[in-house]
Amino acid sequence: MTRVKRGYIARKRRKKILAFVSGSRGAHSKLFRTANQRKARALVSAHRDRGKRKRDLRRLWITRINAAARANGVSYNRFIQYLYKRQLLPNRKTLAQIAVLDSNCFSTILKNLSCDEIG
């Protein structure tokens, strides 16, 4: 029986995986089996950390809003409670940017709240 030369598909797949892990150290960037394991681990970590980044940023925004609100004599909880009572759904990212970049504007927002609703 004559020899059959395999196509380029498997080589193409292996080269793609090795290119993905090209920044790794040692055998992880040279040997296919360890490179394949490294790629799988990297994708798992990336998926996990995308959710973690969202949580971390939300915590940061809440901390910034709380600091700005307390500087004006109101707690974060009361501030958000007021916004929900007025059916204003808070965008925490935007509120945090206002609190950091334009504290006068944030103070104006808090001053426009009625005193009996904030308590």
Descriptive report:
The chain has 119 residues and is mostly helical. It is built from six helices and no strands. It has helices at residues 9-20, 32-71, 76-85, 92-101, 103-111, 115-118. Helix 1 packs parallel to helix 2 (32-71) and helix 4 crosses helix 5. The radius of gyration is 27 Å and the shape is rod-shaped.
Separation of the first and last Cα atoms: 91 Å
Oligomer: single chain
Task: Give the ordered list of helices and strands.
Answer: HHHHHH
How many beta-strand segments?
0
Largest β sheet strand count, sense and barrel closure: none
- Which fold name fills CATH's third level, the topology? c-terminal domain of poly(a) binding protein
Reported CATH architecture? Orthogonal Bundle
Any idea what the CATH superfamily is called? Ribosomal protein L20, C-terminal domain
Structural class: mainly alpha
Number of domains: 1
What is the radius of gyration?
27 Å
Q: Estimate the mean pLDDT confidence.
A: 91
Low-confidence stretches: none
**Approximate shape:** rod-shaped
Helical fraction: over 70%
Q: How many separate helices?
A: 6
For the record, what CATH class applies? Mainly Alpha
Strand content: under 5%
